[in-house]
Amino acid sequence: EAFPEALYALAVEKMGRDRIDLSPETLFETFLVTDIFPNTDAQIEASRAIVPMDDSHRAQLASDSIQAYRTEEVKAIVKEYMARLRESFKRAVAVHDFRDGAPMTLDAFVELVKRHELMPLISKPDLRQIFVACSQIERMKNKDAVPDTLSLSSLVLAVYHLADRIYGDALYIDKYPTPEARVQKLLAKMYLLR
């Protein structure tokens, strides 16, 4: 019962009593945003024991995902949403690069994921691993591709990975047992359930 008061006392101690420029509410909010939340996120991610993938594992991951998602059903689902994906790609890129036709950077990829409210469903390290894996596949296919970026076709591969990571885990595998079901759910969440 005394936890809120103890947390506020910790905020005052940490932020300093001399911060008279801040109201008690602002002081507490600043403490949560700058100290508690980042540390909590770091602890959660560390507790998952996420091991960085090496290049061969990334290539295998991408290859496995491509094979599992190379069905006519998945292609039909993606085709249905392609105009929306293209528009999302352009919007996310425009936030970080004003050139028309620029490739997607990691920041733009994160922007797209945030904009479609997927961040609560996937960890930041998983998101980064997906981006890096898809970017490397892009470079393997196209030697002229800008390093550490995605094209629209690589974004489609990233969508497959997102669907697989979010809806292919133990929590959802019974509900979304096929690649088609996972892609349909992800794209519906991104574009229809908003």
TrEMBL record:
It comes from the Eukaryota. This is Uncharacterized protein.
